[in-house]
Design brief:
The protein has 5 domains: 178 residues; 221 residues, FAD/NAD(P)-binding domain (3-Layer(bba) Sandwich); 155 residues, FAD/NAD(P)-binding domain; 53 residues, Alpha-Beta Plaits (2-Layer Sandwich); 156 residues, Rossmann fold. It has 19 helices and 32 strands. Strand 22 and strand 23 form a beta hairpin. By secondary structure, it is α/β, with parallel strands linked by helices. Helices cover 26% and strands 20% of the residues.
Amino acid sequence: MEQKVGVYVCSDCGIGDALNLEALENIARNEYRADVVKTAPFLCSQEGSQIIKDDINNEDINTIIVAGCSARFNTDAFDFDPLKFVVERVNLRDHIVWTQTPKADQPSEAEEAAPAEAESADSQAGGEEAETEAGAAEPAGEAEASAGDSSAAVNENTQEMAEDHLRMGMVRAKKSELPKPQIEEINKTILVIGGGATGISSALESAAAGYDVVLVEKEAELGGWARKMYKILPDKPPFEQTRKPDIDEKIKSVQDNDKIRVITGANVKKTAGEPGKYEVTVSHNSSSETINAGSIVLAIGWKPYNADRLGHMGYGKFPNVITNVEMEERTSASGGQITRPSDGKQATRVAFIQCAGQRDPEHLPYCSTVCCLTSLKQATYVTESDPEAAAFIIYKDMRTPGLYEEFYKTSQDNPGVMLTKGEVTSISEDETGNIILEIDNTILGEKVMVAADMLVLATGMVTNALPAHIEDVTDLTPEYVGQWRETETQDGIIKEVIADPVVLNLEYRQGPEMPYLKYGFPDSHFICFPYETRRTGIYAAGAVRAPMTAMQSVNDGGGAALKAIQCLELTAQGMSVHPRVGDMSFPEINFTNCTQCRRCTVECPFGVLDEDEKGTPKTNTFRCRRCGTCMGACPQRIISFNNYSVGMIADQMKAIKVPEEDDKPRIVALICENDAYPALDIAGLNRMNISPFYRFISMRCLGGTNLVWIADALSAGIEGFLLIGCRFDDEYQCHFIKGSKAANERLGKVQETLSRLMLESERVTQVELAMNEWDRLPQIMEDFAEQLKEFGPNPFKGF
């Protein structure tokens, strides 16, 4: 489109008091030839936004630059149709005015002072009147400072900071083009893989919302583990009593629902395509068929930890040592009778050992969360079968989260249930087949011996996302269960892991299964996006993604169904799913200059790109989440978005005015929009003072960082680069999973670039920062600025 640019500067929230707004207007009008430039109070108000709307109607403005508060605030006031208008927010308030000394004659910490504080400032400054956002009196001749020439009053460094950010915002807006959403006819069927409680819940909820569902189950009938349960944990207030499972009624609801097709005895042989256009080959009844689906819910559940590895606890050695799963199956089969395997006699004294092979670095290092509750439930089986019977539970820690604490209290009140914290030091068998336990480190500090008819081991839950042959979850590859593959490219050898097939059998360049977290659970941003996997359109639900109870699994199935529906509806509009929900831009590749280096296909966190036989990337538009990692990975700089590109960021850096004075360094900070940007906002809200020599450029993700920016900017006189992004590795918080890590790995190559320029490699530094660590920001930035000062001026400055 032919751009008509309108620049709108807000004078409130202290902006007009701290800055020379006339100078900002001149930059927009004279340097960047904006068609309309206006300053107004409270642009976020109805009256303020109406000014912009009037210019849209009367002046045909289609590129809108709002210089005021953070882009994360007042989004509704500046919500213009993204298919018609380019909107760029320049954060003068939170990142500049509220973090800087606004006036040359004021203290170093900029604050919104109340009138009483202004009087105090008067006395400290020898009677000079202090300007405040609350409206304190201004000195004569400066009454129009907020809208006129206040150059004598403003802090020079603060003003220069604001001017550079306006320049960068103008460049970003002028380099942006309107997105061209890819809208196609898509299939809105939801495929649910797994017919247990989770999958059934997901299928019923999807159908209730009006969507067609295909439910695929590998066994001959639906129900999964729920059909094997004698009773289930409390799932309704007051959470005190167990009850019979209602899985049969739910199965009937599925079978009677016209919108749900059930395929049992089936396996997925191949999954190809992308959201809205999946083609899934399913085999059943000695034949196969292709199912067209728009999104997929993976609800394949869990398996018990292999108790054959627990010989030291008597399993496989003594016949009356069984697992909690075997206890459940035996009780269900007998209608509630508790009998022991060796002779079929009723067991009236049953011991339970918690964390059997769990929280153990040699077995399952994690807690399965459900086992304590399961033992409490099975202890009630013992006392219900015989009021004179006794159950003994020996635990490391009793974990009954949330409202299940009420069930724990009920069990404590049961006279037949005895609980003790302790360490089992010996497990043996007497001549009658009874199990003898020796327990040390009890709460009372005494050694205890328990003779039981039967011992139940509380073994843990292992995700079915792991191949069946994997037993040792402590020895998995970092991201996948699979085989290492080395691919030779023009950039050298790329080493990666290709997953072993389990259930999805994806036709993806990055392998047939989803990337895993350690211990085999599907990788996702657990806090913000628990259902999401690293394969867009495929949502994990239930115990396949984390150990959970039946009630939690049912709720999880409903949640995943909602995410699958959201994916369908956003894809139908050409929009991205999380975390850039609604983004209609797509990466475009200039294939003419592609060298088949494979960087983009390997580094994409979501497996968006496939390859042809030569290594040329093949796009799958609807898999993309618009993070820009491919843009940063590409050494040829041939991947870009309409509104986000290597050239755009490079031009933003070129827009920074680098002064000749050595005491005014310019430092570029690339900040992740998900954590670093809001952290800086919060620092501003708390009036934390930061160095005025930083220039902030917001990134969708640090994974989009291209090393060419660093070389170009440093050679132009920028003193240093500070990359502020999410945490990565085991405790990662990156919304795009591994973008922050990818940026960090790329910085390892910057040494060669800086050496070529004869500059210190420490001039480029990356820090990990969570949003709630905003209070660390000022010190981080101050330390980096001091380090650059020790290096001395950039020798390229002035060239």
